[in-house]
Amino acid sequence: MDSQVGLSDADLKDFHVSKHPLILHKLSILRDVNTEPKRFREVVDEITSLLCYEATADLPLSTIRIKTPLAEIDSQDIATRIGLVPILRSGMGMVHAMLNMIPSAQVWHIGLYRDHRTLQPVTYYNKLPDQATVDMCLVLDPMLATGGSAVATIDILKHWGARQIKFMGLIAAPEGVRTLRQAHPDVPVYVASLDSHLNEHGYIVPGLGDAGDRQYGTI
Ligand code: URA
């Protein structure tokens, strides 16, 4: 999908849509209505690994001294304490791949639902300790739809004291990108696709349906 309709240069700054052929191929499997939950979960995991590679390409490194079997050398070590912040429930599907890549990461869950009356996100789960325990938070949510949950989560993390935050998702709608970029222009966004639009029920079109339902077989 190559729809950037209505997105300004400011919206598109630090907004990264992967062009990797493996990601594009795997997205077709996710979008396919006939893909069963088991395969769906596997492909979410695979795409997340590839997106992780892209989203962490600028992680700061520190120098450490190590011994190989042949010599002692200066080598590199990730200097940043990383927190993974999956937005419940569909963000959970991205955690396994991220932890595989960054085993030392902490996982802090945030639960939000949308109030049907006000359409505003309401927090129902947040066990963050008083002080921030990480330097960088990677917020995980497969679908950047209205952007409401992403903005609310990032509000919480900034209030917590997180200094650096990135958002990672699978599919974004222009409406969600605009809302997120306007509320948090300092937060880079990494997704596998920018789709056409949101429908009247808040679903991304063409999208893949409800990412939680498709992962957990609750359609
Ligand atoms: N959440 C989803 O799971 N899918 C959408 O299309 C929008 C929000």
Feature tags:
eight-stranded mixed β-sheet; 27% strand; three-stranded parallel β-sheet; globular; Rossmann fold; 219 residues; 15 strands; binds uracil; alpha/beta
Structural summary, described in words:
The chain has 219 residues and is α/β, with parallel strands linked by helices. The chain has a single domain, classed as Rossmann fold, CATH 3.40.50. It has helices spanning 9-12, 21-31, 37-55, 95-101, 148-160, 174-183, 211-216, and strands at residues 15-17, 61-67, 72-78, 82-88, 106-107, 110-114, 121-126, 136-140, 143-144, 164-168, 171-172, 189-191, 193-194, 197-198, 204-205. Strands 1, 4, 5, 6, 7, 8, 10 and 12 form an 8-stranded mixed β-sheet that branches. β14 (197-198) and β15 form a beta hairpin. α2 (21-31) runs antiparallel to α3 (37-55) and α3 (37-55) packs across α4. The structure holds uracil. Uracil (URA) is lined by residues 90, 143, 145, 202-204, 207, 210-212. Residues 90, 143, 145, 202-204, 207, 210-212 line the site of uracil (URA).
Give the structure's gist in a few sentences.
This protein is α/β, with parallel strands linked by helices. 32% of the residues lie in helices and 27% in strands. It has a single domain, classed as 3-Layer(aba) Sandwich (Rossmann fold), CATH 3.40.50.2020.
Query: Ends: how far apart?
Result: 25 Å
The CATH architecture can be given as 3-Layer(aba) Sandwich
| Main beta sheet | 8 strands, mixed
Radius of gyration: 18 Å
**Helical amount:** 25-40%
Tertiary shape: globular
The fold-level CATH name is Rossmann fold
Alpha-beta classification: alpha/beta
The helix/strand order is HEHHEEEHEEEEEHEEHEEEEH
The set of bound ligands, ions and cofactors reads:
uracil
